[in-house]
Amino acid sequence: MPYYTKIYTQQSPNSIYQIIDERIILIPGGPIIKEFNNSITVIFDTINFYTNSSSRQEHVELLKNFCIIYSFLFNESTIQMFHNGEFTYHLEIESYTDVPINHESVWDKVDFNNVIEKAYFMNKPNGKFSLKEFYISTENSFIPSIILYLNSLENVNFLSQKNPEYKVFDNSYLRIVNYITILETIIGHDDYCNEEVGECKSCGKKGIKHRKGTENSWLKAYLKKTVNNDVIEESYFKVIDFARNIRNKTTHIGLLPTSKTILLGTSYEEYGFERSKNEYKDVDAALASIIFSLREITHFLLLNKYYKLNQFFPLQTLKVVRIKS
Question: What is the mean pLDDT of residues 280-296?
Fold first, then answer.
């Protein structure tokens, strides 16, 4: 039986959009006002997600996979709302023509026939790639990496910490661990050498296995082959190598985040990698800059690995305006 579910978004289709003909259809649903935690009111656009499914359970599974792919492409919190139980009302109908349509929008009307620019946020990629192509090209084996990527995104919108002076919990280093895990899944490692190292002079262990080359040489070779732009390769390498050291210290030594929000009156600050690597232990904006760059690299390499888009861009600096209340 056909079902539809209303989902909240900031990227609504400019017309009825069929992902799979007569089976999965996106229908504009118009604006909606939602209240969260009895205190925060947000205006969304909506998509009426329609499926011609054999059961409610199948409809929910298709909805979940759509929210995962959609959130990855558009950098949205749609999958977080799915996870938090916001999309649990699934209405059984006779046909997709019974689904209400509302073309009004308060956010961004998008032509889903070409969403490649949305997928590369703040950059100008070449070519076209439709939401339908993204959906159909996403194999089940891709989903775990995409979920881990989405789980690493900071909740930066209406559910975020409103006053940084009162911030207690900091998952910054765990986000770095997640991103490096994804990157190592994509990049891989050099093979182990056939020969084993002899006896360690320090601890006496014998027959120690080792890889043929260093992690850095393998990473540089991968970036050279994949990115093929000396300047961008070098910037990606610096961030990945630096973040990998944070990952190692976090998981093996117990390094914990210690950065703080700096409030020194109204000021404008810009954080690139060279500044951030020296200040990340003390200043939260410097740490956020490293994570933002790592997220961009991870996103670009996932798009390349899974969708063969082969487009890479310079890393953005993080611009911060501090206003002391």
Answer: 94
Q: DSSP characters for 181-212?
A: HHHHHHH--PPBPSSPB---TTT---SB--BS
Q: What is the pLDDT of residues 62-80, one digit of tens each?
A: 999 999 999 999 877 899 9
Total tally of structural domains belonging to the chain: 2
Q: Which region holds residue 123: left if phi is over 0, alpha if psi is between -120 and 50, else beta?
A: beta
pLDDT above 70 as % of the chain: 92
Q: Maximum distance among all alpha carbons in the chain?
A: 76
pLDDT digits (tens, 9 = 90+) for 156-196: 443 445 566 667 778 899 999 999 999 999 998 877 777 76
Residue 219 and residue 1: Cα distance in Å, rounded? 50
Domain of residue 230: give its range: 164-322
195 and 49 within one domain:
no
Burial zone of 16 (CB within 10 Å; 0-12 exposed, 13-18 middle, 19+ buried) = middle
- Rounded distance between C-alpha atoms, residue 151 and residue 227, angstroms: 26
Which residue is associated with the tokens 């500044």? 275
Instruction: Check residue 317 and give its pLDDT.
Output: 94
- Is 244:214 a contact under the CB 8 Å cutoff? no
157 in any annotated domain? no
pLDDT of residue 157: 41
Averaged pLDDT for residues 264-275: 85
Cβ contacts of 182 within 8 Å, gap of 6 or more: 145, 148, 149, 152, 298, 302
Beta bridge pairs of residue 208:
197
Question: Is the separation of the CB atoms in 222 and 304 below 8 Å?
Answer: no
- Specify the residue for token string 């670009």: 300
> Do residues 129 and 308 touch, judged by C-beta distance below 8 A?
no
Residue 45 has pLDDT above 70, yes or no: yes
| Strand (E) or helix (H) holding 50 | strand 40-52
200 and 105, same structural domain?
no
